[in-house]
Known about the structure:
The protein is mainly β. It contains one helix and 45 strands. Among the domains are: 347-433, Immunoglobulins (Immunoglobulin-like); 439-533, Immunoglobulin-like.
Amino acid sequence: MKDKLTTVLGSMLAVALVAVVFGAAPAYATQVMPSPHAVATTKATEGRPDLVAQGSAVALVWQARTGADWNIYYANSLSGPGAAISADPADQIDPRVSVSDDGHVLVVWEDHRNGNADIYGYDVTTGKGFVVCDQAAQQVAPRISGDWVVWQDDRNGNWDIYGATIDTADDTVGPATAICDEVHDQTQPDVSGDTVVWVDARYGDEDIMAYDRVAAATFPVCLNDAIQDQPAVWGDTVVWRDERNAATSGADIYGFSLLTSREFAICRAAGDQSAPAIDHDLVVWTDARSAATKLDVRGYDLTLQEPFAVVVASGAQSRPTVSDDHVVWGDARTGVVDLWTADLTPWDAGLVIDGGQHWTRSTTAHLALRARSKTGVVVRMTLGSAGGSGTVYPFWPTQNLFLTPGDGLKKLTAVFTDLSGDSSPTMTASITLDTHGPAVRVPAATTIASGATGAIAFRVTDDLSPAAAVVLRVLNAHGDVAKARYWSRLTTGTLHRYTFVCNLKPGTYQVRVGATDLAGNHQAKVATGTLTVS
């Protein structure tokens, strides 16, 4: 199965950061390789990749056409090159790879060397090839989990689902047994552990059914009246392509929990979504929301309930596979279909300055950094101003920073690196240094009749702060406060009016208006005016 593969900154940093709240969803590093695998530059057309990965251990298979025929290739890294493991003159297509409980890397594929479609296999660990099923009928669409292979088989005159077990001790295959041979068509199987899923036509349209090998039981996953196809399963979660909303948003991606028997929508974006793949809590698929003829690869994190883009580029990107946070897909940006990859390793990283403030009036700021990768050990960080190359420092979670002189926006970039050498996405943050207070203006004289409704106008301006706290006081002839009003946040640059019912005695009063901007600066001079109550 796929889960079996084995103080430093000082005054040198005159920069600052924005407050990014800890606990936010991890950022995904979707760095597409700048150049594809070596296999992608030496073969004419490549596609249908399948991947199993755990940490630095990788097993990647795909089909490639170098001449008239398709062959099967294998690589043990995501940087190539790969080697052919089946190069018979006839077509070999649709490969799948898995790792058995005893650590054998097993590859299976659809093979046409006998004039019809059979299932063949190869044990990468021993270097031996073997026949999974070469029965006289057609066997297509093999899928494998551990040492259990399932496929689509028409030996009974319609498509059924069959399976067999590989004995890795001598690379022999046990007898083919029917998993589902109901009289209608069963197609497009997938398998994870002891669970097999497929598309089933017994109810008049295409639905998703499943089989539990331990319980020897078949059960429905989705029987919606629309078409459901292209199922994929990992652990206790099944995903598929669903046309129930085809009239409004096109084909979507739906899911089903085998633990809770709960169905849920994963992606209902405009345009068609198709060919889903799943590993742990990551689902990826081919996405046509950009245009009907423009295909990208997008994904969704089931745990975080967050969508993300894997690759949005020129040409078509399609048929992704995912394992251990690595995604591989077929990519036609160069005019032929190559294999490209992205690393979706989540980084839980955050930057907080001065406890989360966006503005400051101090040239010294307190920086808090948080970074945790999949390996858990972050050893260094690269910090610099936005657009600069940055300087490398040992990772330290807290630091005092000295901001560059002069009011304005200060920016910083941070990249964290863990013990394995993996780097986080570039984090960009900023804070505004503001050392000048706002200016306040009030009319020189205002008149309001006693008992009437009137207004006192005022305006607060500030070059950097978009808002300010404002206090307005009306003082009598003795300097006592006769009326007061406080606003915790008013927009700067706007004429404001304090409207009230004037219950003051006739006489002359002084109006005083003060303001404090978001950085904590007070106005240089309190604005004053005269209020005459008639």
